[in-house]
């Protein structure tokens, strides 16, 4: 006769990440149903593609910032680094460089900003919040200085806008930006689940000193992780500037909050040591779905920000309660 001790724990008990994904996926479906009741066109094909297009930039940024959060760090410069990357890319293109070279240079600029964040945090001992806040102010200022407070246009390159809003697959409305997000999500999952980068990221986030004592070069890996985050910001800048066919110097601030919210909602604990790539994409979809629904209901931008802030509070509170339950 089986006793309570003989019973195996359920799949949710054995795999907490699966439970969290199930919860946020159910929340996403509930959001879709609620907005569908309020707005009949909410789940139309055109609007779903609009949501996915909006998710592309925030999702890429969230994938990047999730790596830093898993180390118990943060990157609040990711929005302005995105802008600075596409400003640099645009200026290089307008100066006569081929567009492909300008694109690669923009991504490398993002990676360099991430490298500086990691160096300040790992080598100079600055708290990640202060290091990335400094980078946020630097890149915000440099974007305005380099562009002379004017948008930088890519109008001389006819195919550049199609890079994000065209369709490689030939499916109407299924934009290339969505494909770029999916490709980066797959790459992120591979790096997270199959390489030492993922294992060391979680180890550093769980206990940095224990990771150091076990032989991990914590400083080097932290710099690598922040560089990866910056590179993701560079790619997001590429997608954003392609959508707008221009680089807007004042556009970046605010994007970091949506990205952090998406990563936290997706199951990346601010305490570090926990993370999931699939959850980040669902979290980004939740943010975009709420914003799109509120926009259809003609809710002001200011009110949308307040509502997203409440969602972030709920996500962090849920994360902290889960931590307490595990300790008990």
Walk me through what this model shows.
This protein is mainly α. It has a single domain (45-290, 303-323), classed as ABC transporter involved in vitamin B12 uptake, BtuC (Orthogonal Bundle). The protein is 73% helix and 1% strand. The protein has 14 helices and 2 strands, in the order H-H-H-H-H-H-E-H-H-H-H-H-E-H-H-H. It has a two-stranded antiparallel sheet with strand order 1-2. Helix 3 packs across helix 12, helix 4 runs antiparallel to helix 5 and helix 5 (99-122) runs antiparallel to helix 6. The relative contact order is 0.19. Mean pLDDT is 87; it is low at 1-5 and 10-15.
Notable traits:
328 residues; mainly alpha; ABC transporter involved in vitamin B12 uptake, BtuC; 14 helices; globular; disordered N terminus
Distance between the termini: 30 Å
Number of separate structural domains: 1
Largest sheet: 2 strands, antiparallel
* Backbone CA Rg: 20 Å
Number of helices: 14
- List unreliable stretches of 5+ residues: 1-5, 10-15
β-strand number: 2
The name of the CATH topology is ABC transporter involved in vitamin B12 uptake, BtuC
Q: For the residues shown, what is the average pLDDT?
A: 87
Counting helices, strands and paired strands, the structural category is mainly alpha
Morphology: globular
Broad CATH class:
Mainly Alpha
Widest β-sheet, arrangement of strands: 1-2
Helix content: over 70%
Based on the structure given, which CATH architecture is correct? Orthogonal Bundle
**Beta-strand content bin:** under 5%
Compressed to H and E, one letter per element, the order equals HHHHHHEHHHHHEHHH
